[in-house]
Structure formats: C-alpha cells, structure tokens
C-alpha cells in the first residue's frame, strides 16, 4: 500500500528515552557480529574449513571462559583450547588433530581480537538526540580480554557484552536480570518444567558471574587509584545493595535447591532425574559464587582504607618517564636523515647512561700470554673422502633450445609482439623440434609476473614482461590468452640513487 501524496511523514519522537530501547538492541546486536564474522571469514583460511561451524565453537569458548572465571583469576588459555577440542573434533571427525587445534586457537584468538592494537571491537550505530537530530555513535566493546593474574600469568575473562551474548543478547541491568532469571527459575521448577528450568539456571549463573565481575572491577580500580572510584557515595551504596542482594539470593537459591531435590527424588523418568541432578549442581555453583562474593564484599572496606594509606604515603616518582614514541620517534619521522641522526645520537649518548669501557689489567694480560696452549684432544678417526657420483642430466630442454628461445624473446624495447607470432617464428626456426614452442610458452607465461625487485637488486638492464589484454590465443597446440610480450629497460642506478636520497 502507498500513502497519499499529501500525507507528511511523522517526525521521530524526541528525547533520549524514545530511542534508548532501539540503541540497546543495536548494541546487543553488535556484540554478536564478531561471532557471525567468524563463519564469513573462515573461507579466507588456507585450507578447507567450510565444515566447521565457527560461531558454535565461539559460543562454547565464551561459555568455558565464563564458567572458569573466579573472583581473582580467570581461565587458562591452554585449558580452554583443550576443552574446545572435543567439540571441534565432533564437527569434523575425519580431519587431523592438528587442524582441530588450529581451528580452536583461531576462534579463541579472534574472540580476543589479537590482530588489533587495543584488542577490542567497534560498531557504529545511529540514534536521535534530544533535539531530533540523527547522530552516529561509536560502540567499543570486548568479548574476551586478557588480564594479569596474581602469579604473573595471563588469564582470560569474559566481559559483560560476552555474557549478554550467552543469555540471549539482551543489554539489561545486571541486578535486575539476575533477579528476573532466578524468579523465572523458581516458577519453572515449581511447575515441573525441568528442561526450561535448566536453561534458566544457566542464565542465572551467567548473571551471577557478571554481577561479581562488576564489583571486581570497582575493587581493581581502587587498587590502582582510590580517587578513580567514588567511595563516599557510589561504592558504599553498591556494597550495601550487593550484600542485601546476596542475602536475598541465598534465600531464593536455598528454596530453589529444596524444590529441585524434591523434584529429583519424585521424578520417575531417568531424563527428569538427570536434569534435576544437573540443576542441583548449577544452583550449588551459584551459591558458591555468592559466598565468595560476600567474603570479598566484607573485605572491601579494609581494602579501601589500606589502599588509601598506601597511596597517600607513597613516595612521589623521582621523575617523569620519557615517551619514546610520542616525544622522540614521531617528531623525527618527517625530518631528513642527517637532522634525525643528530637527535638520536644525542639521545642514546646521554639518555642511556654511562658505559664503562672494557679494560684489560696488565697482570691478566701477562698471565694470558705466558700460559701455554692447552693440547687439543683427539678428534677421532680421519674421515675418508666421499666417492661422488655425477648425476645424469635429465633436463627436458637442451642448452641449444634455451639459447634459441632467448634469442627469439630478445625483442626491442619499443616493439613488443604477440605470443602467437613468437610461436610461429619458433616453428619456422626449428620445424622438427616440438619442444621449442613449449619452452617459449613457458618463458612467456613466467614473464607475466616479472620479478622486478630481484632484477633491480641484481643490476639487470632489461626485463622480459608479458601482459594479458583479453585477446584469446588461436594456436593448434596451445590455448589461453594471446599475451603481449615485450622488453622493459631498467634504470638500476637511478633507483639506487632515489633510495639513498629518500629520508629514513
């Protein structure tokens, strides 16, 4: 249906609240884009990887990292790869184990986004501002990030965006989402729908991990700088809310656990018993994580006071460090070589500290000169001279054929020729030699991708080239493109001079 010509379009609703729901859905959709991109980019890998479902492996990797996270540590990179291998091998059981390992590592590295500088993803979406103007915004996020561990190692941790992907790509408040997940779980268990209850229990566990991650980041920021976190109002309110939340969750989880155990004991079908047992394990894990979170919250106040004392009385830095890239390298890149060399020489002479030159003491030198040489040990029996056997010359083309072909291809620089004409000339020069046209064709095809850089480095004066202009080759023996074959003159001395004059 079409609207009447005179009907004006309704203007968009003004105000940030009118577009916030759409913006949150766009951000949630952007978090799933790296997973879909894996299946789109697997065709670029060197090999046949179409049989693998990369998005499925990526979701399994996020799941493994999330469930392996603790309050202080994260998931080990090698352990995640090892636990991904059975799923990857199940997708392609006939492939080699080395290929399965490569797929698992490729998926995990792409979730970390190893190839980028900040190891993050960026999406662009548009919203309407308070004045009704359309504004494009950048949304930067990460799925799996590498964090330093307490023992000096590197661990993997999932972000809020990755957990949102696991629980349906809904960009919602963590506290509200966890309460909703546990209420949904309690209702499903009371109605005996254990299959749906297991999915709800897994979602509740993910929200528990996400809630703990929010509080962990606040405490980590406090360890770095107490002024970066509002300990006057925000963090005390957050701790109070978290303790009340945990106490409420304890009551709900223990009630849920009682209902699950009763459903497990009363179930008759083996499948219901198995699902009920798995639900018991999941809820127990939620209780364990809440217990750990409660202990950390009780330590938050003493941690703040200790960090406040440590940072307040820490001695100031003796001097500011030097940014080698921003203060030295970047300003010198546009400068000529002579001027830049003076600056770098002065920096390394004065900025790296004095170097003590190596000096030999006279007593050591005298002892070294007067010490007799150590007799060499016997090196073993003398090896006999090897009996070398000359290998037969099994080359297809003779030296005469190569010389004839090169003579035919010795073309003037201003007179290129077609490959068809060169083949006719080769047949006229050697009527009974069928190999000469074949050798000429090989040399012409090789000239289609001439090694220009190698020819410059070796000081060559001429270079044979071939160009395909789309003309087909009409020949009784060969087919393809009727290449234009010619000779290009190289100015090696001029190129070397240009390189020496260009700034470094």
Automatic annotation (TrEMBL):
Reading the lineage from the top rank, the first entry is Bacteria
Any idea what this protein is called?
A: Uncharacterized protein
Organism per entry: Streptomyces cheonanensis
């Amino acid at each position: 249906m079409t609207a009447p010509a005179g009907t004006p379009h309704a203007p968009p609703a003004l105000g940030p609240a009118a577009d916030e729901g759409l913006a949150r859905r766009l951000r949630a959709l952007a978090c799933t884009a790296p997973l879909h991109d894996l299946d789109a980019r697997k065709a670029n890998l060197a090999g046949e990887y179409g049989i693998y479902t990369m998005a499925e492996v990526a979701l399994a990797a996020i799941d493994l990292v999330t469930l392996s996270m603790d309050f202080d540590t994260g998931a080990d990179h090698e352990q995640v790869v090892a636990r991904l291998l059975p799923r990857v091998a199940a997708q392609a059981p006939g492939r080699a184990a080395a290929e399965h390992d490569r797929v698992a590592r490729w998926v995990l590295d792409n979730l970390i986004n190893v190839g980028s500088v900040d190891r993050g993803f960026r999406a662009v979406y548009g919203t309407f501002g308070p004045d009704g103007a359309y504004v494009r915004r950048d949304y930067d996020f990460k799925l799996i990030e590498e964090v330093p561990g307490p023992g000096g190692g590197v661990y993997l941790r999932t972000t809020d965006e990755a957990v949102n992907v696991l629980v349906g790509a809904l960009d919602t408040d963590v506290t509200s989402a966890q309460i909703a997940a546990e209420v949904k779980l309690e209702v499903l268990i009371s109605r005996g729908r254990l299959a749906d209850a297991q999915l709800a229990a897994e979602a509740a566990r993910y929200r528990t991990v996400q809630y703990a991650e929010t509080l962990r980041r606040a405490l980590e920021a406090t360890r770095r700088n107490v002024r970066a976190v509002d300990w006057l109002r925000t963090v005390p309110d957050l701790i109070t809310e978290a303790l009340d939340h945990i106490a409420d969750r304890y009551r709900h989880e223990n009630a849920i656990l009682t209902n699950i155990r009763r459903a497990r004991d009363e179930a008759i079908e083996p499948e219901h018993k198995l699902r009920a047992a798995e639900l018991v394990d999941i809820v127990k894990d939620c209780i364990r994580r809440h217990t750990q979170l409660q202990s950390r919250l009780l330590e938050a106040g003493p941690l703040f006071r200790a960090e406040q004392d440590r940072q307040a009385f820490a001695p100031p830095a003796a001097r500011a460090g030097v940014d080698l890239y921003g203060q030295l390298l970047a300003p010198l890149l546009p400068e000529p070589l002579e001027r830049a060399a003076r600056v770098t020489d002065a920096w390394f002479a004065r900025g790296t500290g004095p170097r003590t030159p190596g000096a030999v003491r006279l007593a050591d030198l005298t002892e070294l000169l007067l010490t007799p040489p150590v007799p060499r040990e016997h090196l073993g029996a003398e090896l006999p001279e090897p009996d070398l056997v000359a290998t037969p010359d099994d080359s297809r083309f003779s030296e005469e054929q190569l010389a004839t072909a090169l003579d035919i291809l010795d073309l003037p620089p201003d007179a290129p020729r077609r490959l068809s004409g060169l083949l006719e000339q080769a047949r006229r020069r050697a009527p009974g030699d069928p190999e000469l046209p074949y050798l000429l064709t090989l040399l012409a095809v090789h000239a289609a991708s001439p090694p220009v850089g190698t020819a410059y480095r070796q000081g060559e004066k001429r270079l044979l080239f071939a160009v395909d202009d789309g003309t087909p080759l009409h020949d009784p023996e060969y087919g393809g493109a009727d290449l234009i074959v010619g000779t290009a003159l190289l100015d090696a001395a001029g190129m070397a001079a240009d390189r020496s004059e260009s700034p470094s």
